[in-house]
From TrEMBL:
Name recorded for this polypeptide: Coatomer subunit zeta
UniProt xrefs under PANTHER family: COATOMER SUBUNIT ZETA-2 (PTHR11043:SF4), ZETA-COAT PROTEIN (PTHR11043)
Annotated family: Belongs to the adaptor complexes small subunit family.
Gene3D superfamilies tied to this protein: 3.30.450.60
Keywords for the protein's UniProt record, in alphabetical order: Cytoplasm, Cytoplasmic vesicle, ER-Golgi transport, Golgi apparatus, Membrane, Protein transport, Transport
A cellular-component GO term for this protein: Golgi membrane
Gene Ontology biological process terms in this record: intra-Golgi vesicle-mediated transport; intracellular protein transport; retrograde vesicle-mediated transport, Golgi to endoplasmic reticulum
Organism superkingdom: Eukaryota
Keyword Flavoprotein applies: no
Main localization of the protein described in the UniProt heading: cytoplasm
Every AP complex mu/sigma subunit domain range: 12-149
Amino acid sequence: MDSKSLEPSLYTVKAVFILDNDGNRLLSKYYDPELYPSMKDQRNFEKNIFNKTHKADNEIAFLEGMTIVYKSSIDLFLYVVGSCQENELMLMSVLNCLFDCLNQILRKNVERRCFLENMEGAFLIVDEIIDGGVILESDAQQVLQKVNYRVDESSLSEQSVAQVLQSAKEQIKWSILK
Protein backbone atom coordinates (compact mmCIF):
# COMPACT_ATOMS: atom_id res chain seq x y z
CA MET A 1 0.00 0.00 0.00
CA ASP A 2 1.19 3.49 -0.69
CA SER A 3 1.40 6.07 2.07
CA LYS A 4 -1.31 8.22 0.48
CA SER A 5 -3.99 5.64 1.20
CA LEU A 6 -3.03 5.53 4.88
CA GLU A 7 -3.34 9.27 5.45
CA PRO A 8 -6.21 10.28 7.76
CA SER A 9 -9.30 11.56 6.01
CA LEU A 10 -12.76 12.81 6.85
CA TYR A 11 -14.13 10.72 3.98
CA THR A 12 -14.81 7.61 5.99
CA VAL A 13 -17.94 6.15 4.40
CA LYS A 14 -17.69 4.69 0.90
CA ALA A 15 -21.31 3.55 0.61
CA VAL A 16 -24.59 3.03 2.45
CA PHE A 17 -27.29 0.72 1.20
CA ILE A 18 -30.38 -1.13 2.32
CA LEU A 19 -31.43 -4.42 0.76
CA ASP A 20 -34.52 -6.56 1.22
CA ASN A 21 -34.29 -10.20 2.28
CA ASP A 22 -33.92 -11.29 -1.37
CA GLY A 23 -30.88 -9.03 -1.85
CA ASN A 24 -32.74 -6.43 -3.92
CA ARG A 25 -31.67 -2.81 -3.53
CA LEU A 26 -34.13 -0.51 -1.78
CA LEU A 27 -31.81 2.43 -1.08
CA SER A 28 -28.19 3.02 -1.95
CA LYS A 29 -25.72 5.87 -1.88
CA TYR A 30 -22.14 5.49 -3.10
CA TYR A 31 -19.78 8.28 -2.09
CA ASP A 32 -16.62 7.21 -3.93
CA PRO A 33 -17.21 7.37 -7.70
CA GLU A 34 -14.01 5.44 -8.41
CA LEU A 35 -14.95 2.52 -6.17
CA TYR A 36 -17.81 1.08 -8.24
CA PRO A 37 -18.38 3.42 -11.17
CA SER A 38 -21.20 1.59 -12.92
CA MET A 39 -24.59 0.39 -11.73
CA LYS A 40 -23.59 -3.16 -12.70
CA ASP A 41 -20.47 -2.99 -10.50
CA GLN A 42 -22.52 -1.66 -7.59
CA ARG A 43 -25.14 -4.39 -7.90
CA ASN A 44 -22.47 -7.10 -8.11
CA PHE A 45 -20.81 -5.71 -4.98
CA GLU A 46 -24.17 -5.61 -3.16
CA LYS A 47 -24.98 -9.17 -4.26
CA ASN A 48 -21.58 -10.42 -3.03
CA ILE A 49 -22.05 -8.72 0.33
CA PHE A 50 -25.60 -10.00 0.67
CA ASN A 51 -24.54 -13.58 -0.15
CA LYS A 52 -21.78 -13.38 2.45
CA THR A 53 -23.85 -11.76 5.22
CA HIS A 54 -27.54 -12.69 4.97
CA LYS A 55 -27.15 -15.91 6.96
CA ALA A 56 -24.42 -14.73 9.33
CA ASP A 57 -24.93 -13.44 12.86
CA ASN A 58 -21.89 -11.17 12.76
CA GLU A 59 -21.95 -7.40 12.55
CA ILE A 60 -18.84 -6.91 10.44
CA ALA A 61 -17.44 -8.33 7.22
CA PHE A 62 -14.43 -7.74 5.01
CA LEU A 63 -14.89 -8.06 1.27
CA GLU A 64 -12.97 -6.72 -1.74
CA GLY A 65 -10.73 -4.63 0.51
CA MET A 66 -13.70 -2.97 2.21
CA THR A 67 -14.86 -2.97 5.83
CA ILE A 68 -18.59 -3.57 5.98
CA VAL A 69 -20.78 -3.25 9.06
CA TYR A 70 -24.33 -4.46 8.82
CA LYS A 71 -27.53 -5.08 10.71
CA SER A 72 -30.74 -6.88 9.82
CA SER A 73 -34.29 -6.27 10.93
CA ILE A 74 -37.18 -8.51 9.89
CA ASP A 75 -36.75 -8.36 6.09
CA LEU A 76 -34.26 -5.49 5.72
CA PHE A 77 -30.47 -5.52 5.69
CA LEU A 78 -28.67 -2.23 6.40
CA TYR A 79 -25.02 -1.84 5.32
CA VAL A 80 -22.36 0.82 5.85
CA VAL A 81 -19.14 0.38 3.84
CA GLY A 82 -15.75 1.92 4.57
CA SER A 83 -12.18 1.36 3.40
CA CYS A 84 -10.07 -1.47 4.82
CA GLN A 85 -8.25 0.80 7.30
CA GLU A 86 -11.45 2.50 8.50
CA ASN A 87 -12.39 2.41 12.17
CA GLU A 88 -15.16 -0.16 12.60
CA LEU A 89 -16.57 1.71 15.61
CA MET A 90 -17.11 4.85 13.53
CA LEU A 91 -18.87 2.86 10.84
CA MET A 92 -20.94 1.07 13.49
CA SER A 93 -21.99 4.41 15.03
CA VAL A 94 -23.29 5.47 11.59
CA LEU A 95 -25.14 2.18 11.19
CA ASN A 96 -26.69 2.41 14.66
CA CYS A 97 -27.75 6.00 14.05
CA LEU A 98 -29.36 5.02 10.74
CA PHE A 99 -31.17 2.08 12.35
CA ASP A 100 -32.35 4.12 15.36
CA CYS A 101 -33.69 6.88 13.10
CA LEU A 102 -35.50 4.39 10.86
CA ASN A 103 -36.86 2.68 13.95
CA GLN A 104 -38.29 6.01 15.10
CA ILE A 105 -39.84 7.14 11.80
CA LEU A 106 -41.21 3.67 11.04
CA ARG A 107 -42.76 3.50 14.53
CA LYS A 108 -40.59 0.56 15.62
CA ASN A 109 -41.68 -1.46 12.57
CA VAL A 110 -38.44 -1.63 10.57
CA GLU A 111 -39.56 -3.84 7.70
CA ARG A 112 -39.78 -3.59 3.92
CA ARG A 113 -43.38 -2.44 3.49
CA CYS A 114 -43.14 0.38 6.04
CA PHE A 115 -39.73 1.34 4.71
CA LEU A 116 -41.05 1.71 1.15
CA GLU A 117 -43.96 3.83 2.40
CA ASN A 118 -41.50 6.18 4.14
CA MET A 119 -38.69 6.19 1.58
CA GLU A 120 -38.38 10.00 1.47
CA GLY A 121 -37.74 10.07 5.23
CA ALA A 122 -35.05 7.41 4.84
CA PHE A 123 -33.24 9.46 2.18
CA LEU A 124 -33.40 12.57 4.37
CA ILE A 125 -31.94 10.62 7.28
CA VAL A 126 -29.06 9.24 5.23
CA ASP A 127 -28.33 12.74 3.89
CA GLU A 128 -28.26 14.18 7.43
CA ILE A 129 -25.93 11.45 8.72
CA ILE A 130 -23.48 11.43 5.78
CA ASP A 131 -22.59 14.11 3.26
CA GLY A 132 -20.34 13.06 0.42
CA GLY A 133 -18.76 10.32 2.53
CA VAL A 134 -18.15 12.56 5.55
CA ILE A 135 -19.95 11.61 8.75
CA LEU A 136 -21.89 14.67 9.87
CA GLU A 137 -23.91 13.26 12.78
CA SER A 138 -24.17 9.98 14.62
CA ASP A 139 -26.73 10.92 17.27
CA ALA A 140 -30.18 9.73 16.21
CA GLN A 141 -32.06 12.39 18.17
CA GLN A 142 -30.04 15.17 16.53
CA VAL A 143 -30.67 13.70 13.08
CA LEU A 144 -34.40 13.39 13.69
CA GLN A 145 -34.50 16.95 14.99
CA LYS A 146 -32.67 18.19 11.87
CA VAL A 147 -35.04 16.44 9.47
CA ASN A 148 -37.84 17.80 11.63
CA TYR A 149 -39.58 14.46 11.88
CA ARG A 150 -42.31 14.22 14.48
CA VAL A 151 -44.74 11.41 15.04
CA ASP A 152 -48.16 13.00 15.01
CA GLU A 153 -50.14 11.26 17.74
CA SER A 154 -53.50 12.37 16.33
CA SER A 155 -52.79 10.76 12.95
CA LEU A 156 -51.60 7.67 14.77
CA SER A 157 -54.89 7.36 16.68
CA GLU A 158 -56.94 8.17 13.55
CA GLN A 159 -55.06 5.51 11.66
CA SER A 160 -55.69 2.91 14.34
CA VAL A 161 -59.42 3.77 14.40
CA ALA A 162 -59.57 3.41 10.62
CA GLN A 163 -57.78 0.08 10.87
CA VAL A 164 -60.26 -1.13 13.51
CA LEU A 165 -63.19 -0.12 11.32
CA GLN A 166 -61.68 -1.85 8.29
CA SER A 167 -61.08 -4.99 10.33
CA ALA A 168 -64.67 -4.93 11.61
CA LYS A 169 -65.98 -4.58 8.03
CA GLU A 170 -63.90 -7.57 6.94
CA GLN A 171 -65.15 -9.70 9.85
CA ILE A 172 -68.79 -8.80 9.16
CA LYS A 173 -68.34 -9.53 5.45
CA TRP A 174 -66.82 -12.95 6.14
CA SER A 175 -69.47 -13.84 8.73
CA ILE A 176 -72.24 -13.00 6.21
CA LEU A 177 -70.55 -15.00 3.43
CA LYS A 178 -70.31 -18.11 5.63
